[in-house]
Amino acid sequence: MSAVASTARAIAPDALVFDMDGLLLDTERIAREAFCEACREAGWPDPDFDVYARCIGGTGGDEGAILRAGYGPDFPWEAVRDSWWRRYHEHVEHRPVPVKPGAAELLSYCVESGLPCALATSTRAALAQTKLSLAGLDGYFPVRVTGDMVRRGKPDPEPYLSAAERLGARPERCWAFEDSTNGVRSAFAAGCAVFQVPDLVEPPPELRRLGHTVLESLYDAIDELREARNEAWVG
């Protein structure tokens, strides 16, 4: 097992809660490329990625305010938005998105071990179902909390609190898996043990100070689970 940074070992979980985009599915690169193409089309050819990165993992609807605040009032948000999401949806609604390394193996391990799993994603339910079906992962998540099911999305804790409740588990007995800063803050605020596998953006120093565990891949998460569960059995 290799971990970029970790806390003391978390107790063996009663349930697991997973983000989707950027963690299980390699969608964030598709979204970024669609955004860059939309910006070029709208006459904004060189978007600052640090500004764009603030949108990752959040609930749809906040992007305009984030991008205008970062790029300035002249940013052509309406034109970019329409082209961005058209390009993105044309891809993810009709073609399988690559599954991130270790995702299928981790989910299979959870099934074999009898560990209940839930999805906590900012994506709306219908699109989440399409993405999971095309990727062959739709059978792993009988419990789902999607962006259109919550009043306050990530980084608010509501998605993870709702997922834990639907699983019948206490949040502190759930392990949460995330890739983004917004997602980590959501799961941490809910009280979950948080494991981050960074995707497009490395966790900044202020996020690392939360003390969560940062892994290189979801393969490492399997090792974390095995070790925690073995220690629980020995104890």
Summarize the structure.
With 235 residues, the protein is of the alpha/beta class. It has helices spanning 28-41, 49-52, 63-71, 77-92, 103-113, 125-135, 158-167, 181-190, 205-208, 218-234; strands at residues 3-5, 15-18, 117-120, 143-145, 174-178, 193-196, 213-215. It has a 7-stranded mixed beta sheet.
Structural account:
- With 235 residues, this protein is α/β, with parallel strands linked by helices.
- Helix content is 45%, strand content 11%.
- A seven-stranded mixed beta sheet has the order 1-7-6-5-2-3-4.
- α5 (103-113) runs parallel beside α10 (218-234).
- The protein is globular.
- The two termini are 22 Å apart.
Order of SSEs: EEHHHHHEHEHEHEHEH
Tell me the fraction of residues in β-strands, as a range: 5-15%
Secondary structure tally: strands: 7
Q: Figure out the total of helices.
A: 10
Radius of gyration: 18 Å
List keywords for this structure.
single chain; 235 residues; alpha/beta; 45% helix
Secondary structure layout plus pairing:
Layout: E1 3-5, E2 15-18, H1 28-41, H2 49-52, H3 63-71, H4 77-92, H5 103-113, E3 117-120, H6 125-135, E4 143-145, H7 158-167, E5 174-178, H8 181-190, E6 193-196, H9 205-208, E7 213-215, H10 218-234
Parallel strand pairs: 2-3, 2-5, 3-4, 5-6, 6-7
Antiparallel strand pairs: 1-7
Helix pairs in contact: 1-4, 5-10
